[in-house]
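Why does residue order matter? Because the sequence determines the fold. Keep that principle in mind as you read this record.
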Amino acid sequence: SEYRGRTAVHLDAFCWVKRDSYLPQGSQGLKAVTKYKLGYDPVEVDPEDMVRYARDRPAHMASYSVSDAVATYYLYDKYVHMFIFSLCTIIPMGPEDVLRKGSGTLCEALLMVEACTKDIICPNKQKDPVAKFTEKGNLLESETYIGGKVECLETGVYRSDIEYKFDMKPEGFQGLIDNVDRVMTFAIEVEGGIDRRKITNYDEIKAEIVEKLELLRDRPSRTETPFVYHIDVGAMYPNIILTNRLQPSAIVNDATCASCDFNQARNGCKRKMQWVWRGDYNPATKGEYDRTRDQLMRESGVDGTDRPFHELNEAEQAKAISDRLKLYSKNAYKKTKVTEEITRTDTVCMRENDFYVDTVRQFRDRRYEYKKLTKVWGKKIGTAQTAQQKKEAEDTALVYDSLQVAHKCILNSFYGYVMRKGARWRSMEMAGIVTKTG
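Structure:
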């Protein structure tokens, strides 16, 4: 139980640690969190030395007795306070609920507010049917999509001051040489926003780049000290959602398109996108499922009681059929589960009301704005002339940093939310398309 009051706010730092610290389960204790997040080791005393220290070193024991309280206070002050109240400016909930609710619940509350402002009816919470079948008629036990994969190209510890042997492919560098003009034009005009014709030394820079690439191409085997780069794709999943206008309501089928007035090739309103479905299903056929169900209809005490099968609720009936079918499959097929991966193609409607996409775009742009302001005020800390100006710059930078972190938390939830059980805007197809594209 915990205290809740109408005149006071109760914020538990441990709730932040569990949801937003991204620390593993075994590192969520106060000592570990203090070390990882605050960068110092709190005062510790071996239990066997406590009595001796209390007698001989009372000052040390006094500092030990308040060390946990001090660590908790600084953790709350640095990470929890500004972050939670920044989220409260976005989510229509009180600070206690913003801290304790899951990120999916917060995301849904935000979407409901955005839908209300645009006069969009919120859909009901989706429920999975108790019994679901594959296209071949097999009883489906579970289904999901193939998410993002992490691939380790080569293991090891790399340092920029230790020589390393490189074996590179010359054809790769030749491909870069052939596309130098296209890459440079994109960097200048699209990313830089400058007309290429205004670049006076374009040919000289191009020649330098080509010369360096030719040196790498002609001597692909070399031993050198490497450059170590950390490359990050900024807001990858939100940008995939925006680029392809992905939203749960935009995943349509042929029947939906057939009834649409814009269902013509010249409109270009349909985008075919692939994703990978993975499901576990029982090897028994639909006919065997029906016979198993008919057999259970004539039995009593299926669930360990004297109730006949037809008096069980829908979920209990489905469980009884699944258990009996597993027993049958074990004897008939020598296995109870088949796992299959299928690449599916779904249609994304480009004319669907884009409130979901607009919400993601607003959050992304707003976060970029807050990140920029955080850097601006961070620079002002170093150029401040007086202590008052420095304190003002530090406080303002902290506010903007908390706002950008709050927006990042919600922005990352837009993708995961669509696969949350019971979500109002739920679409496994959209989640699969996002990870497949990524």
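The two ends are 43 Å apart (CA to CA).
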